[in-house]
Amino acid sequence: MELTLLGTGAPAGLPRPDCPCAACACALGPDARAATSVLVDGALLLDLTPGAAFAAARAGRSLAGVRQVLLSHPHDGPAVEVPAGLPQPGRVPDGRELTLLTGHRARAVALDAPGTGYAVTGPDGQRLLYLPPGGAPAGLEVTAEPYATVVLDVLGRPDALGRLRETGAVGPATDVVAVHLDHDVPPGPEVRRRLAAAGARAVPDGTTLETGAYEEVPDVPRRTLVLGGARSGKSVEAERRLESFPEVLYVATGGSRNGDTEWAARVSAHQERRPGSWRTVETCDLVPLLKDDGPPLLVDCLSLWLTDAMDAVGAWDDAEWADGGERALRDRVRALTDAVRETRRTLVAVSNEVGSGIVPATASGRRYRDELGRLNTAFAQECEQVLLVVAGQTLALRG
Fold it and tell me: Which residue numbers are catalytic?
């Protein structure tokens, strides 16, 4: 089954008409995208958008053989003109299946938002799932076999990808292609980076894909360390990297700090950002979690883990530090990094980057800064990917 993506952008396209934002200003060349529309084997058109015939011609395709046009979502604005020779667009009721004379079958998938998804099976038996912007499947059942290709709004609804993974509809070899791309994420390298973290990719308008053919599906890193200063956006970046997973265990190392209202407000802001399917545990005992099997771990943060560890070994007292405290801390850090090396879980950890700041005025502050630098260095050595977040912008230091 052959798919030609006539467009890969949001319904308004990218850049949006008359939008002055930085993302739209940068959406040039292959990063400029028409509204998403997919041509399947020249016979089935999923979503009719303005200029579809010209888009097909630019891709070296024709709409002359289209036997069915299916719409997936309500279209705002004036009605789209149907090119001469194309059948009138329609939608299939949820759960119903439409069979074309060409042998293609399109089953309507119910969504949790207005619109309809389509599970398309080609004459060759290959299976495609196409979802509209902002939509995720509702009430999915566990599937016996994953789709070969899934085309959906990865950036707008990463949780939809998580649901598909949970039910087996998306497997390790599924080609996940992001469409309905909008101006919420800067185009180019930033889009590709965020999609790769979810095991997905984007392609330029006009690209033709062969369903079932081997593709370079991005590998989600097993271990990632996210560094950054205060309020840099490092926690948001870490959370974003796991949004497309069905389950996540959020490990909060800071505790509740009863009576500290400012800390409680910080904790509440973090909790409100997390998907409802995530579980939270408050602990600094990370080694057993890393040794166990289970869903991905998000550890926020190593800086507070270090504070707890230094408290435990008496690091703030010079005499205790010299009389075995330093050695005990080294043992704790080594046990942690050994567990990171051996873990089979997906891990994203957050830590503060303090080495570029003001030199602390106290000896204990300088000791903490130095130990955190050593911890970050040792932890980073065990990670496939290391990121630095500055002013909300993420720089890849490794991976």
Answer: 270
